[in-house]
TrEMBL record:
This is GNAT family N-acetyltransferase. InterPro entries: Acyl_CoA_acyltransferase (IPR016181), GNAT_dom (IPR000182), N-term/lysine_N-AcTrnsfr (IPR051556). The keyword Zinc-finger does not apply. Residues 3-172 form the N-acetyltransferase domain. PROSITE patterns: GNAT (PS51186). GO terms for molecular function: acyltransferase activity, transferring groups other than amino-acyl groups. The keyword Transferase applies. Keywords: Acyltransferase, Transferase.
Length: 172
């Protein structure tokens, strides 16, 4: 099997929307009402919103491919693009998703390694993310990668307020 990571451009916006909606729905549909899930998807993953995010120089998106099929993606933010004011020495992993049928192939690990590589290239001192408090598999994955809980913040799935744990990893 051949794995490849490729940076997304504005030309990839439709593919980004497709994989974003698919992976987000797969991850959260069982624990959330269709109304709240659809409201979030319509707000976060519409083409104009994704074009705006892709055009931000402080945000970067990457697809991960397995045997030339897009299987997941990563979004990282620095500076003012971070969803919390964590400072100039931090990089946020805002989104890291892999299609369900491709989980357990190590693709999430490759995406996280890419995020760490970007952070180190930009001389960041820490990397952080928010993860839904009920997403036990993701929390275990992040802990295995050296992240520890350092706080929490609200996340809105539609108008349903949920809690995301803030997890941070200090870089060397």
């Amino acid at each position: 099997m051949t794995m490849m990571i490729k940076k997304c451009t504005l030309e990839d916006v439709r593919d980004l929307k497709t994989i974003s909606v698919e992976t987000f729905s797969e991850t959260f549909h069982e624990q959330n009402s269709p109304e709240h899930l659809n409201a979030y998807i319509e707000r976060a993953y519409n083409l104009n919103q994704l074009k705006h995010e892709l055009a931000n120089p402080s945000s970067q998106f990457y697809f991960v491919y397995l045997n030339q099929e897009a299987t997941g993606y990563l979004k990282v933010n620095t500076d003012e693009a971070q969803s919390e004011g964590m400072g100039d020495d931090s990089l946020e992993v805002e989104r890291i998703y892999v299609k369900k049928k491709f989980q357990k192939y190590g693709l999430g690990k490759h995406l996280m390694n890419k995020a760490v590589e970007i952070a180190l290239e930009q001389q960041k001192k820490k990397i952080w993310l928010g993860v839904w408090e009920d997403n036990e598999n993701a929390i275990a994955f992040y802990q295995k990668k050296g992240f520890v809980q350092t706080g929490s913040h609200s996340f809105f799935m539609g108008d349903d307020e949920q809690v995301d744990l803030i997890m941070t990893k200090t870089l060397q």
